[in-house]
Write a structure and sequence with these properties.
The structure is a homodimer of 459-residue chains. Chain A has 459 residues and is of the alpha+beta class. In chain A, 37% of the residues lie in helices and 20% in strands. Chain A contains 17 helices and 18 strands. In chain A, a hairpin with a 4-residue loop joins strand 5 and strand 6. Chains A, B: This is FAD-linked oxidase C-terminal domain-containing protein.
Amino acid sequence: MTVTDTTTTAPARLLGLLARDLPPDRLATDPRTLAAHATDRSGTHPEGLPLAVVHARRTEDVTVTLRHAHALRVPVVPRGAGTGLSGGATAGEGSLVLDLSGMNRVLELSPEDQLAVVEPGVITAELDRAAAAHGLRYAPDPASAALSTIGGNIATNAGGLRCAKYGVTRDSVLGLEAVLADGTVVATGRRTVKGVTGYDLTGLLTGSEGTLAVITSATLRLRPLPAATATLAAYFATFEAAAQASHAIARAGVVPALAELLDGPVLAAVDPALREHGAALLIVQCDGAGAAAEAQAVADVLTPLATSVRTTTDPAEAEALLSARREALPALERLGRPLIEDIAVPRSRLAEAAREIRAISARHRTPVFTIAHAADGNLHPIIVVDPALDRLPDAAWETAGEIFALALRLGGTLTGEHGVGVLKRQWVADELGPAAHALQRRLKQAFDPHGILNPGKAL
Amino acid sequence: MTVTDTTTTAPARLLGLLARDLPPDRLATDPRTLAAHATDRSGTHPEGLPLAVVHARRTEDVTVTLRHAHALRVPVVPRGAGTGLSGGATAGEGSLVLDLSGMNRVLELSPEDQLAVVEPGVITAELDRAAAAHGLRYAPDPASAALSTIGGNIATNAGGLRCAKYGVTRDSVLGLEAVLADGTVVATGRRTVKGVTGYDLTGLLTGSEGTLAVITSATLRLRPLPAATATLAAYFATFEAAAQASHAIARAGVVPALAELLDGPVLAAVDPALREHGAALLIVQCDGAGAAAEAQAVADVLTPLATSVRTTTDPAEAEALLSARREALPALERLGRPLIEDIAVPRSRLAEAAREIRAISARHRTPVFTIAHAADGNLHPIIVVDPALDRLPDAAWETAGEIFALALRLGGTLTGEHGVGVLKRQWVADELGPAAHALQRRLKQAFDPHGILNPGKAL
């Protein structure tokens, strides 16, 4: 059989070894499964179809898969629910998809230590629901929480609506179990909220978009559910006025749990009747024992700047106020295929960023819809393209490119929370600079010397 | 001169090159300066004296120093105020000390973006004071804040009293400028609170104890000063009862700004009169708009468990309640040389850890004084040794070793906030495990291929 081993191609040998060493239900090569696992919600379509999909159910499936792929130098694309918006989970010809969505057990939920240990395929909202039964919550809440997995959230260091007060995903990850490119299992971090032994591998893996290791379990911090919540909705004559108002909240020393900003085009897409209230809507939520007092302070700040301000502590009314935000993306999806950018700028530059985005949009005759997590300067400028088009129109690319350049010019970043994936790679070097970029490549090399983990993504 | 170049020793050549390339006031080789820069507050004394001290005043001094040291393979020990407790800044024979305490300018303080850009030698409390003038604060507050530098705080990922609510140093570092071993300057992170482009080099450098790069400036997050503060002090019949009470606060869903626990021996050292109130003192502070309501909730939890509970919103009275905590270390220093450990355990194991520490102390007939940041499970078991002794008594080492083993057995860590330095190196592999330890060494290699940066520390 030695003759076969040296003449067969690496992909064919890999499939043979995986068929031999994995339990029988793990490996899929049928074209429908391959096609379903070739792309993500970015809408990016790589060339060709992947070789196969491994449906991992336990850590050993991951170690077996990576050990063989490493030896045979076959690229591996780790994948959760495929809800990524930057193409980080796209898998083209010659690559092996490692699907972790079936590793979806909550291994431990400790109300005593306010932490959970979960497999990567657990749906984020489900963990939050399990925590709520103990008076706790998983604070990170990406808008995709009902669909996306913890593993994917960690891979992109996902943000969400509550970041200004509760931090991003990294701030809730205490430790990880991960499998290195060669199949070695490493444990990082710990079960304590503090700890400084060794370099921060937990933070390094968080946000690494599957290019450094494959996460097989995560120890996550849970937090007490807030004692109270108060919600405000304010309309403004212009988006800039709303952005300034959001900045005025920060200047008043209030850290809201969320501050979501919707521009006029988004309001019109959700419901033309909303647009009649103003050209921008700012929704603010304060939580904790001081929620009512903070909401009053926010109302005092907003009232002279807004056209209307409404406050409530009633959960059903709060949900009604937040519904415009929840309906924004579905509404834009009805108009076409939304290309959702996620630049972040220093908070004081939010109004300026919004003004410049409008100018860029006008220059390229490309409508841009903008939602912002206002309290942390994170903007989602959304370009809606015709879904019938095979490729993005040049004007859309140019608009996106100018928005990225704007973010960097204002001292911000290309991506606040979605990750680089494949879509933003061409701008990464501009943000990192050559020295940090080179250093990052050396780190990649230290983790993955053969470059098999999600090649062509992130860096 | 080529003959001289190949026959002179590397240290002598380095001193010649530094004398040539650095401004005249930067290089010191007099024995008094060398002795003053050979050790830190750990009390560890390395063999011999360092070669020289470079008093850096600007980034270029650091790049020049590292470029030559790298080429000549001379070890470099970066240093701030020398307040480290683990020996991370100790510098023995043959090493060059790179003193950053003179790079002490606040380069920018932006109330608009709630951030500061500072050089590494800025004293932590001075930054906090500068921020307070704008209604802001720098949240991390290591007990050494009045003496220690931001650079040293970042090097050890320093903790402090407010971590349970506001996080550790890493949670306030947005970006860094750092010089790599070969003299290359890299910028990491950004001025925004969110951002996921590239790997998290900011987090990786934070806590790396000067072994990966030398930090030359830091962009730090500032936060609004809290609207209100309420302070409680409660005495308990036993330390375990106080630890359980602190855990009951967490279970009640309150996240206090600080929760400091002092055991009976510490109280007796501060003032024998305090010891008459109980065998342990728990000081809790709540802050923010909900401070009074939270303090009431805390009082409700503590009252049935404590022997006495006292609450105040008056700043002077709060200061009086906190003074026992502030006076603890000076009081122990009057008894001898305190060896301050800083294990952390999952919060539910705090009482168990305290009980076990007492048993270890009894077994080795070595008194252990314990202070804890109770809300994050971070304990400071302190062994006081006779300052006249040349070396630590075996019983002290054995006591420390058993305390570290205990921390790991309870699912905790050797060091919650002080760093590994030289003192805890022999236990690092036990905590990290062989695979993560090997990976960390590969990362070190990717940053510092000749191993010149703070060799023999941290890993």
